[in-house]
Structure formats: structure tokens, C-alpha cells
Design goal:
The complex is a heterotrimer, with 1 copy of chain A (about 240 residues) and 2 copies of chain B (about 170 residues).
Chain A (H helix, E strand, L loop, with lengths): L12 H11 L6 H22 L3 H23 L7 H32 L26 H13 L18 H13 L6 H5 L5 H17 L2 E5 L6 E5 L4
Chain B lengths: L1 H13 L3 E2 H8 L3 H15 L4 E6 L2 E6 L4 H12 L5 H13 L2 E2 H8 L4 H9 L3 E5 L7 E5 L1 H7 L10 H7 L5
Antiparallel strand pairs in B: 1-3, 2-3, 4-6, 5-6
Classes of the chains: A mainly alpha (about 240), B alpha+beta (about 170).
Amino acid sequence: MVYHVRVKEFDGPLELLLGLIETRKLSINEISLGSVTEEYFQYLETLKQEMGETYHKEIAAFLVIAATLMLVKSRSLLPGFSITLEEASDIKELEDRLKTYKLVKDAALLLGARFKNRNSLYTRAPFVAVAPSFLPPSKPLDLSRLLGILKSVLETIPVKQELPQKTVIKLISIEEKIKELERRIADGIVKTFEDFVGDKKEKYDVIVSFLAMLELVKLGTIAAEQSLPFHGIQIEHGTRS
Amino acid sequence: MELARSLEALLFISGEPVARKDILRLLACDTKTLDEAIIKLSEDLQTRGIRVLQHEDTITLATAPENSEIVEKITREQLEGDLSRSALETLAIILWKGKVSRSGIDYIRGVNSAFALRALLIRGLVERSQDEKDARVYIYRPTIDVLKFLGITSLKDLPEIETLSSQMKEYD
Amino acid sequence: MELARSLEALLFISGEPVARKDILRLLACDTKTLDEAIIKLSEDLQTRGIRVLQHEDTITLATAPENSEIVEKITREQLEGDLSRSALETLAIILWKGKVSRSGIDYIRGVNSAFALRALLIRGLVERSQDEKDARVYIYRPTIDVLKFLGITSLKDLPEIETLSSQMKEYD
């Protein structure tokens, strides 16, 4: 199944995550984070398709949070999966950031309503009663100094960026990846996670592959084993008896 | 009395004397009610720092005479002395652009320039006029006095005028 | 109280926000007396068409919110369109924090807030200054114009922001 998640204009990863959690009417905790992880990655795929070349730049902020979500997902799927203190604090930090962001978002909505229904106050023009006369500064105005000031101001104008042409990138969704992984394990082509990921350098591909692997572990299609942290992950076809 | 308050806000904001007929229209009231409101406001202001002044057919608010010393002091301080960095930036943009709207200046500086513009206006360094295309928009220009003060006779004498004005061309 | 009258005249003539330290010097009084004068003036103006606005260490006079409709008929100040959602979020954070760096805002929103900040700066709702500890860092804070736009006389009159801060305290 190919997902056509409508790319709503999500401003960033926190807004996206919060949106996913709120659509499902969940409260913010580790369990709800785990349950929206897959949708989060689907959204990133859509983003990748829409954005083409600029993807790498825009996606950085999304990937940092994706890494934490992977931890959450792994913990929910793999019994006995232990995490370090630092990783635990990453998860806690993400929860806290989401809660903070939710409060800010709610306050912004109320502020917006207040802006619409405002009764503004107005101040007077300064010294309107004073008859205008030429009152230059006490020190002479130096043309070269003014020129320097103008140039430094002009440097701060943001440069308008041309939107790059969209390029079509072939994308593999998590579901496709699951099918692929299942087939290759059954054929005996893939014995380790590293085999499966191959020499793909993109963090995103690694994450999608890892999620696919987790899904298969959960279904009991495969069994995965890692002897030590950061060591290779052995994969074998599950015994479905 | 409600109307006295509205009258006060109206006179406060307009700064200059307002004609009675304009007040009648703005407050949508009759002459008698306006007279009562003026009397009420004058009474309220009796013990205050500002007063209602009536002159011929106009009304205005002004500071009470016993505060004239303090008023002169702050006016002198604010209108003399050096220009702030933001006033200098704003003046530089107006000089090299020749004429520019408030929003053009705001865009170039990336910050609101209202205070800086007022400081330049009341010191006679720049002047403003209504935009021919849109009467709600003010266009700011350098005054002849400021050119003389800078020792130039025309904006063409500004250093690097062509490069810089073309660099700012899109921000009117 | 004599001083409240002088204060009113001073604020009336200068129109723009005046820093407390300038008022102390101009009125030649101490902080405590000034505070009393501000309270007295605010009370006196309670039933009038104008109000005292206080923000950080500046004070100004403005028309009362109930007169905004009449005032808008004659003022040239244009109230620009609505703020975008990201600008509102950014403003809410700045109002809640009082002062905050760009990276502080980005962390809370999870996204780059440069454009939202620029929109707020240009509208004069926030201002920036260099961090005292690190000159490369800008610190953003709300301006007194936020009060004017929203029709309040002090930031304490924003319940949505008060709620936000008290809820945030529970997390800390």
C-alpha cells in the first residue's frame, strides 16, 4: 500500500508529532509516541517526495527526533530491549518538549483570537505641539560614517532564495521494505542487518530498514539477535510453529 | 459621562486643534451635548496636568501652564543631542534612496522604524508627504536643510549613490 | 498630588514611552515617589479617556480601549493584518519568557523561527538586543507596542500568558 499522506504544512517535527498524537486523541507519553512513530516516518517520506533536493536541509530537525522515536518504538516492540540513562533522558526530554510546545500552541491560539477582537490603544505623536525647526545633531553628520552604516544595514537583508526544481526520487516505504526484507531473508541472501541496509549512507534509509526489521520481529517472521551494543545484528527466519 | 471620555481620547490622539464641527460628526452628537461634554472634561482636568483649550471654533488639549518648565526641559532634551543608531540607519536609507515609504525602511532594516522616523521628522532632518498612489501611505524624503548640513547640494553627490540605490531598488 | 500632574504633562508632551530613569531625572524625585505618582495617575485616569501603560522600565499614555473605535476614525496608524500561526507562537514564547534568545525559541518550537521573528520585529511587537554575556547572540523581548495592539495596560493583563507560565512552572 502506498501512502498518500497529504502534506499539510507542518512547521516542524514537534508540530507534526503533536498533530499525530492529537488526531488520535492520545495524551503525551511514551506509549502514544510509539504508536505514532510509523506515521511520523510516512510523513517524512512524503516530505522527501515533495521537497526533492532541499529535503536534506529541511529534514535535519526531523531526523534528530526520529532517532528518539526509534528508541521508543524499539522498546515497545522488543521485550528486554534496554536503554541507557542518556537514552531514557532523551525520551523524557522529547515528552517534555511536546508538552511545552502544546501549551505554547494553545496560548498562541488564544493570543490570535485576542488580536482579532482587540480594542487597541493609541499613543500621541511626540512633541506635536512643538513648531518644527531644523535641529541637527550636535556632532556633525559624517557622510562616510552614514555610508558605512547603510552598508552594514544592507548586509542584513535576507537573500531571497529561488525554490529549486523538484526532483523525483524513488522511495521505498516501510511496507515495501518489510516485503523486501522478508523475501531476502527467506532466500538466505540476508543474514545480518548490515547486509540488508547495504552501503546506503542515508540515515533515513537505515531508519526505515530498522523499522521494517522491528515489524517483522514483532510479527514473529524473523528473529534478531545482537550480542553486544553497537555490534552487528544477526537475523534469521523465525520458526513459526 | 461617556462622551467626555470619548472627547478626551479624540483630542489626545489628534494633537492639533480639532474643529467643533468635526467633533460633532466623529462623536455623532449635537451641539448641546458636546458643550456639556466640554464642560465636564474641563472640570475633570481642573486638578490635572493637562487642560482643555478652546479657541474660536476649535478645541485642543495642552499641558497645564504650571508644568511649562518641565515640558520645556524634556522637549529640549529630546530634540537636541545626538541621534540614535536606529535614527542614523533610517536617515541613511532615506538619503540614498531619495524617497521611500515607512514599510520600505522597515523591510530594509528588518525592524520597526516608527520611533526613528518621528525623531528625524521633529528635528527637521526628513519630511513626509502622502503617497500619490495611496493616500494612507507616507513617503519620506530628506529635507534641504539636511543636505546643506551634510555639505552636498544634491542627492547625486552622495558617495556610491548609483550602486547603493540600485541595491535598494526593490524596496520602495 | 503635584508630582502626578507633572508626570502627566511630561508623558503627554513626549507621546512616546519615556524611560523611568529619565523621568526621575526630569522630575528630580526618587523611585518611591515616582511609583506613588504613577499609581495616583493611573487611579485618576481610571474613569477617563486615557490610560497609563507600563512596560519594563518605560511609561506612556495611550487612549483607553473603549475609545478605540472613535480613535481609529482619525488616527493614521494602520493596524496591519493578522499574524501567522508561527508568528503568534513565537510571540507567545517571548511574552511568556520575557526575554529569550533565538535558539531558545527554536528549541521550544522545534523549528527555525527566523521568519516569524522578522515579521514581529518589523511590526514592532518585539525588539532585540545583544546578549550581555555573548555579543553574537540576540535576545528578544516584547515591546510596549504589544500592549497597545492588544489593548492592555500591562503584560499582567494577559491571562493566556499567565496560564502558560503557571502551567510551565508545574514541569520545572
